[in-house]
Each structure stands twice: as structure tokens, then as C-alpha cells.
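To the wet lab folks,

You asked to see what we're planning to order before we commit. Fair enough. Below is the target structure as C-alpha cells, and below that is the sequence we designed to fit it. If anything looks off to you, flag it before the synthesis order goes out.
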């Protein structure tokens, strides 16, 4: 299926590693010019941008910003405009996930997770939509949530779960607001993904996690990124406010 994404411009937050990195390269493979956001891992982000330029014959640039900081988000979009002239697609992927039972969790852990995951999605979406409306252009937002937004987790990730549930609701609310402006807002809810961040956990407890997944395997990041690319395209033209389950059957909704 041709996604007709060639020469679109996408900003991917948290694009230097893990799923974000794969989203960047999957979009680039479709001909999308990519702004790779990072907070502190600039060297990794530069590697991603270099790989994109070398392998996919599209433009790529690194934009450094903490998505939980409102003024940095505004500056990030200015950087994107300067590098590419516009932005057509926003992928809200940046996230943090502390591990602690609720009874032991600090207020700072809770606040920081909400700030990065939920407030960051709000700040980025608001800045993007403001620019689209001012220019009279359509656009697409894809928010990365989680099956844990609906099921919770058993390993002490309550602020992450809560923040992702908030993003699901925010996706619906924003989609309703901007549907008649040609701006679509959707979300993807992955399950377990085989990235460097979870490799140790999988090595130690693989059967435990496979027992929870009807498909009996861990997703490759490209399987999630392909759904993101679809939602970023006009092939998903009749979708907005949706959360797409890509959890191997964990969620089934």
C-alpha cells in the first residue's frame, strides 16, 4: 500500500532510541523528512539523523528540547520550521517510566512522569495545532500510549499507566476540537516491545511475559512503527480520536 507520505515533514519526540528511533526510520523509509527530538542524548539522535540521511535520501535534523518545558517546546517547533519550513506530522513518543509501588513512590517521581508523558504531549500538540491553524494547513498527530493505559501494570508503573490513560482521553478531546480543521489525532497502544530498554527484563522473565500475550511473542519495534506510519498518512483519512491496539492480543479492544 502506497502511503503517499513522500516529502512530508514529521517531528518525533524521544526519537533517539527505542521505539522512537524505529518510528523515525520507518517514516524516512516512506520519504518523510524527520526532525529527531531528544532531551539529553544528542549523540544518539545525531546517529539516527545521519542514518536517515545516508539510507533514505531525505532530510533529517536533531532538535533538542525537554517536552515537559513549555518554552523549550515552543523553541523546538521554531527549530523545525527553520530546518524544514513546516511540520505536517507530530508523533508524541517521548516518555519516562519509573518503577515503584505506589506506597513507596515519591511525589517527584509522580510529577516528573506526568510532566514528561502527559504534559509533554499537551505542550507539543498545542504548539503544533496553533501553527497548523495559523497557516490553514492540515496535519496529523499520533500519540504513543500503552495497553497499560487500560489494564494497568503489575510491576509498579502507576504514574506511567495514569499518564498514558490521560493521553488516551486527551487524544479524543483534541480530535473532537480539530476534526473540522483537517487535523487528525489518533493514538497507538503497544504491548511489550523488544527494545534495548526491556531486553534484560525479557532475558530474565521471558515466559512470564509471553504467558500474558495471546500471540506468544514480543513485538519488534517496526511492527508498532508501521502502524504509526499508517496513521500519519492519508490512508487513515477516516480515522480520528481512535486508539489502535497493537499489543499482540493483550488488550483486545
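Sequence we intend to order:
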Amino acid at each position: 500500500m502506497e502511503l503517499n507520505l513522500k516529502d512530508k515533514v514529521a517531528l518525533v519526540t524521544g526519537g533517539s532510541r527505542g521505539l522512537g528511533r524505529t518510528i523515525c526510520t520507518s517514516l524516512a523509509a516512506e520519504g518523510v523528512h524527520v526532525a529527531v527530538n531528544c532531551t539529553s542524548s544528542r549523540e544518539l539522535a545525531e546517529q539516527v539523523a545521519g542514518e536517515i540521511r545516508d539510507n533514505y535520501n531525505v532530510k533529517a535534523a536533531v532538535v533538542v528540547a525537554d517536552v515537559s518545558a513549555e518554552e523549550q517546546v515552543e523553541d523546538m517547533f521554531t527549530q523545525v520550521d527553520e530546518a524544514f519550513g513546516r511540520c505536517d506530522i507530530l508523533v508524541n513518543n517521548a516518555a519516562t517510566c519509573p518503577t515503584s509501588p505506589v506506597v513507596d513512590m515519591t511525589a517527584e517521581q509522580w510529577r516528573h512522569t506526568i510532566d514528561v508523558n502527559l504534559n509533554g504531549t499537551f505542550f507539543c500538540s498545542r504548539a503544533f495545532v496553533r501553527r497548523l491553524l495559523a497557516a490553514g494547513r492540515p496535519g496529523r498527530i499520533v500519540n504513543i500510549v500503552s495497553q497499560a493505559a487500560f489494564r494497568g501494570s503489575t510491576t509498579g508503573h502507576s504514574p506511567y499507566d495514569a499518564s498514558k490513560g490521560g493521553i488516551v482521553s486527551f487524544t479524543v478531546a483534541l480530535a473532537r476540537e480539530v476534526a473540522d480543521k483537517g487535523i487528525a489525532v489518533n493514538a497507538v497502544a503497544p504491548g511489550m516491545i523488544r527494545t534495548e530498554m526491556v531486553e534484560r527484563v525479557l532475558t530474565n522473565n521471558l515466559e512470564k511475559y509471553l504467558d500474558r500475550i495471546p500471540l506468544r511473542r514480543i513485538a519488534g519495534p517496526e511492527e508498532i512503527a508501521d502502524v504509526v506510519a499508517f496513521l500519519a498518512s492519508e490512508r487513515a483519512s477516516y480515522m480520528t480520536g481512535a486508539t489502535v491496539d497493537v499489543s499482540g492480543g493483550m488488550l483486545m479492544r
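Structural context that might help your review: The mean pLDDT is 96. The chain has one domain: 9-242.

Thanks,
Computational group
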